[in-house]
Amino acid sequence: MVDCIVRNWQGKEVGTASLDLKVASQSTAADLVHRALVRQQANARQGTASTLTRAEVRGGGRKPYKQKGTGRARQGSIRTPLRPGGGIIFGPKPRSHAVAMNRKERRLALRTALMSRVDDIVAVKRFDAEFETPRTRDVVAALERWGIAAGTRVLMILTAPSEAVIRSVRNLPDVKLIAANQLNLFDLLNARRLVASEDALTTIQEVYGDG
């Protein structure tokens, strides 16, 4: 179990929040997280790359020249892969890149990655209460008060983001907003700092703390 320092909107420490999640053993953690990350990125691929074989390229139905007597190599079609404009040998075709992984392993990898980032978590008390109207500059100023420099990749984790928060954050290219019950491995590892509301940490404990 680890304790995260909770700050208020002005950046002052107002308490602590505990996070107790089961993680993988040190000997298997790196491999588990890597496999889960590869799976997530592979499953995100569309797999729509496609090339034409010599049978699918338009044209080439007539033999370009006679079989014998020219001194040249015999050719049956101008759409052979040996010619420009011909078909592609062993080119990509639409397929699924999906990688299978057990649900327990995926959740364990997510918990392991999250617990490895506890030093980068900034817990905030009553985050949503500060937004009555959308205002991006308020978010930028708050990040500075919490010790997060401009241009830092930030993952903002909230339980149920309000419309005002969503509209305030969407103009910041380095800040990504995500619900506490929809965490994913790539975003957790890609961000340099994590900003989570106090109730979001409680939600994370409830959703992912079942082992």
Automatic annotation (TrEMBL):
<keyword id="KW-0687">Ribonucleoprotein</keyword>
<dbReference type="GO" id="GO:0006412">
    <property type="term" value="P:translation"/>
</dbReference>
<protein>
    <recommendedName>
        <fullName>Large ribosomal subunit protein uL4</fullName>
    </recommendedName>
</protein>
<keyword id="KW-0694">RNA-binding</keyword>
<dbReference type="GO" id="GO:1990904">
    <property type="term" value="C:ribonucleoprotein complex"/>
</dbReference>
<keyword id="KW-0689">Ribosomal protein</keyword>
<comment type="similarity">
    <text>Belongs to the universal ribosomal protein uL4 family.</text>
</comment>
<dbReference type="GO" id="GO:0003735">
    <property type="term" value="F:structural constituent of ribosome"/>
</dbReference>
<keyword id="KW-0699">rRNA-binding</keyword>
<comment type="function">
    <text>One of the primary rRNA binding proteins, this protein initially binds near the 5'-end of the 23S rRNA. It is important during the early stages of 50S assembly. It makes multiple contacts with different domains of the 23S rRNA in the assembled 50S subunit and ribosome.</text>
</comment>
<comment type="function">
    <text>Forms part of the polypeptide exit tunnel.</text>
</comment>
<comment type="subunit">
    <text>Part of the 50S ribosomal subunit.</text>
</comment>
<feature type="compositionally biased region" description="Polar residues">
    <location>
        <begin position="43"/>
        <end position="53"/>
    </location>
</feature>
<feature type="compositionally biased region" description="Basic residues">
    <location>
        <begin position="60"/>
        <end position="71"/>
    </location>
</feature>
<dbReference type="Pfam" id="PF00573">
    <property type="entry name" value="Ribosomal_L4"/>
</dbReference>
<dbReference type="InterPro" id="IPR002136">
    <property type="entry name" value="Ribosomal_uL4"/>
</dbReference>
<dbReference type="GO" id="GO:0019843">
    <property type="term" value="F:rRNA binding"/>
</dbReference>
<dbReference type="InterPro" id="IPR023574">
    <property type="entry name" value="Ribosomal_uL4_dom_sf"/>
</dbReference>
<dbReference type="InterPro" id="IPR013005">
    <property type="entry name" value="Ribosomal_uL4-like"/>
</dbReference>
<dbReference type="GO" id="GO:0005840">
    <property type="term" value="C:ribosome"/>
</dbReference>
<feature type="region of interest" description="Disordered">
    <location>
        <begin position="43"/>
        <end position="78"/>
    </location>
</feature>
